[in-house]
Structures are given as C-alpha cells and as structure tokens.
Specification:
3-stranded parallel β-sheet; about 200 residues; alpha/beta
Length: about 200
C-alpha cells in the first residue's frame, strides 16, 4: 500500500541501453543488451527517490516500448493514486514507480558498511565448472547458473559435477527463465535432491 500522505511529486525519467560485457545465453536465446527506464521522483520538500523499470517481455512483463509509452503519457507531477492505478498489464512499471514512491517514506540505511550478499552469475555450459573458482576467491558463496540453454542430459551431467566440486558452504541457484518443461524441471530437481 502506497503512503497517500506524500504530496504529489515531480516526475522525470531517462532511458538507458547498455550492452552486456559478455552476452548472456538464456533459454530464450542470446541476450546482449539491457534496456530500461530510470525514474526520478522529487518530493515537495526536495527529497529524491529513484526507481527502475526494466521489462523483460519474453519473461512475461510488458515490452520496453509499452513501458516507455506509459512514462511518456504521464504528467510531470504524479501522486499515489496515479501510481496505484498502474494496470497489472504493466508489472515492471508498477514495480519501478512503487519502489521509488516507497523510498520517499523509508528512512536511510542505518549501517551503510553492512555487506549484502549477492549471487555471482556462472556462464552457461561446462565453463561453469571452472568459472566458480575465481568468483569463490572474490568472496561469493552463492552462484546462479543459467539452465535450459543446452541439451538437458548435458546440463544434468554438468550439474552433478558442479554439485560435487563446489565447497559445502556454496549455494547454487538454477535459473531456467521459464525454459524447461515440467518434466525437465523435475529431472533437475531430482539431481538437486541427490546432491543434497
């Protein structure tokens, strides 16, 4: 629920389009560019908050063009009611605007030196079997591995090996981006169960 007590805010946005340093292989093909919209809300007291609209149409959100058209039709000043009225067909827009609006009501982080753990992205395919080592040395303990990219039997074999070579403290997240059938997903889960 958005705080309606905040007065209308000035609204600005900027588009970004950034190529990945290395294209990312997903179950939907090669992904080489990330594009989105950065939102800036400024309250009547001068407080500034940002949000991001980063749609992935192939993953079920609106398209980038739909998000851009939505932002372009908004007035330069918006309020909680307008943000609450963003239709569910625009989930990335909902997230971006609600995140920025809610940031206007939250207090600052108490301990900016606290470490937030992040996942390190492993490359698709067999190169993941070596890539985790340098990431481990950098302090990562959770790894995200894209699956549903190569043939299922090949990936299951890599998964079994990866599960055996990773240190016991390591955590592995599998990310199929909706690229597996239910039967294939069960096969991956069965290997995960075997690995413990």
């Amino acid at each position: 629920m958005l705080d309606p007590q905040i007065q209308p805010c000035q609204f600005e946005f900027r588009i970004y389009r950034r190529p990945f340093r290395q294209p990312l292989q997903t179950s939907h093909g090669l992904w080489s560019v990330r594009e989105g919209i950065v939102l800036r809300l400024t309250s009547a007291t001068g407080q500034v908050a940002f949000g991001e609209i980063a749609p992935l149409a192939w993953f079920g959100s609106e398209t980038f063009d739909q998000a851009l058209a939505f932002c372009q039709q908004l007035p330069p000043e918006i309020n909680a009611a307008q943000i609450s009225a963003i239709p569910s067909s625009l989930p990335a827009c909902q997230f971006g605007f609600e995140s920025a609006w809610n940031a206007l009501t939250q207090s600052k982080i108490q301990n900016p030196k606290s470490k937030i753990p992040f996942s390190a992205l492993l490359p698709a395919g067999p190169s993941a079997l070596e890539a985790w080592r340098s990431l481990w040395q950098q302090g990562f303990r959770t790894f995200k591995w894209k699956v549903g990219v190569a043939a299922v039997p090949e990936e299951l074999e890599i998964l079994q090996t990866l599960g055996q070579v990773l240190p016991p403290q390591a955590r592995l997240r599998l990310d199929a981006n909706g690229g597996l059938t239910p039967e294939q997903a069960i096969a991956y889960l069965q290997v995960c169960d075997q690995l413990g």
